[in-house]
Predict the 3D structure of the following.
Amino acid sequence: MPSIHPTAIVDHRAELADDVQVGPFCIIEANVSIGAGTVLHSHSVIAGPLAVGAGCKIGPSAYVGLDPQHLEFLTRPDKPLTWAVIGNDVIIREGASIHRATRPGLENATRVGNRCMLMGSAHVAHDCKVADGVIMANAALLGGHTTVGEKAFIGGGCTIHQFCRIGRLAMVGGNQSVGHDVPPFAAVLYNGIKGYNAIGCKRAGMSRQTIHSIRAAWQLFHTLRTLPAVIDAMKGISPMSDEVREIIDFMSTTKRGIQPSVKFLNYLNMKGADLI
């Protein structure tokens, strides 16, 4: 039987696994299911429709499954039942928030994968898709419809514009403003792509040859000025690796464009200084 603090309010229509722990002053609304071993710390608010996996740690004062902050949705007289889905072993710390999707159906749910960590005051907006193993540091903010690839790291105070994609094992440094797609394995600093995520690639167990091919791909990105030229040049990297193909595929399917090279931004800043 779940352990529910006397001050918590739990709707009788919520489904809690037998060993779920609900702390003081938590609120759990209807249409919520919570998996085995999950712990809700004090003052957390859990709304639905929402499915939370097993072994999660939520709160204190976390907000999961609330209505999306979307004016068209909020002003509809007949708000559809929309979903959020949280995987297993997810840590959602104090003040962090995850909002449901704007479109009905489980297939359209806002999703946070397994083993993710949302540090204090991080935010996952409506319709986002966050893959397994993603870490969002304090006050990292994802705009609506953002997609984040597996084991990406989003630094503290980052703002990711709606509809952007962050690739697998990418790293976005603290306080960065990202308005374009960030390809896999990239490292963003000074609001541009500085190079590749060296530490993340090593920790992922990539071979030296694979890392060399990724490094070569980013050297081409810093050297060539147009995206088609970059993609064509990357296709000539030898030996070709699956990781470089992943970068090429990502760049070839971008709709928002790719976050610019730091070298290009530095060049623009220098030219601007010359004009003053």
Remarks:
- The longest strand covers residues 192-196.
- Residues 13 and 30 are 5 Å apart (CA to CA).
- The chain has six helices and 28 strands.
- The two ends are 71 Å apart (CA to CA).
